[in-house]
Amino acid sequence: MHPDIKKLNTQAQAFAQEFGEVKQEMQKIIVGQEQTLQLLLTALLAEGHVLLEGVPGLAKTLMVKTLAGTLQGRFQRIQFTPDLLPADLIGTKIYHAKSGEFITKKGPLFANFILADEINRAPPKVQSALLESMQEKQITIGEETFFLEPPFLVLATQNPIETEGTYRLPEAQVDRFMFKVLITYPSKEESQKIIKRMTSGELPEIRKIIAPSQVLKAQAFCRSIYCDERVEEYVTNLVEATRDPKSFKLPFENWIEYGVSPRALIWLIMGAKASALLEGRGYVVPEDVQTVAYEVLRHRLLLTYEAEAEGITADEVIKQILSTVKVP
Known about the structure:
Number of strands: 11
Number of helices: 13
CATH class of the largest domain: Alpha Beta
Strand content: 5-15%
Order of helices and strands: HHEHEHEEEHEEEHEHHHEHHEHH
Distance between the termini: 21 Å
Strand order of the largest sheet: 2-5-8-1-9
CATH architecture of the largest domain: 3-Layer(aba) Sandwich
Largest sheet: 5 strands, parallel
CATH topology of the largest domain: Rossmann fold
């Protein structure tokens, strides 16, 4: 049955206006980084998690804190350090002397928006505790299992230039992030704006725009956005091109060690739907897929030693795939 596109468009436009206000509110604090802000909102609507990578001082923490401030949700920042324990994240059982019973003390993961700062500084056991909650949306403490209250969004940051005292995230765990977003330096003009905004007095107060219940409605609507079979086939071809580049006549079959996982299919479609919603459309077009392709694929492509030796990056491979695979 063909959906009522006009009705979907009307609903999408209403949600797009609300989240447009969220973005405008964030831009009162954040200078530039427009694409990154758009990607954070896209991940929120698609119910995915984000790995932000960039050198220190690029406002990664401020960006996440500002987003949480506009959404009326509970926000927790966790600074990952080498001495962190899983209980520091999920909580633990504490003996209550008066009652003679163990009571559950919940950890900071019991919130709506989690900022996992410098995730690669914590040992693997702690990383696993966080990534399990991301995947299962639940936490087990002792014999009790607690479901996390939606919306639940994890935004993790990592610094790519330091290796001392860090623990590299395993590929299987990185795969659980919907997006890997690379944050770059601001332009000269943006740098001047940063100076004025951050050194001339107090920052403007952020208004709370959307309640968590409204975020849940938007997430539910996001899934109902129409995606044509030809767009689905296009997404399948993009993913297949990473696994079998020879059949698509791509010149780099010795560059890719492993193609992307099936999660890439899901997040390309969900990311495209969320992107369409933010544009006020109730249907997906191929450009929506291209908008999120780099962020969905770059951390899922495993390159060969030869490719890395030649200085080839995952983004270069994705660029060639997007320019080669036929667009419907």
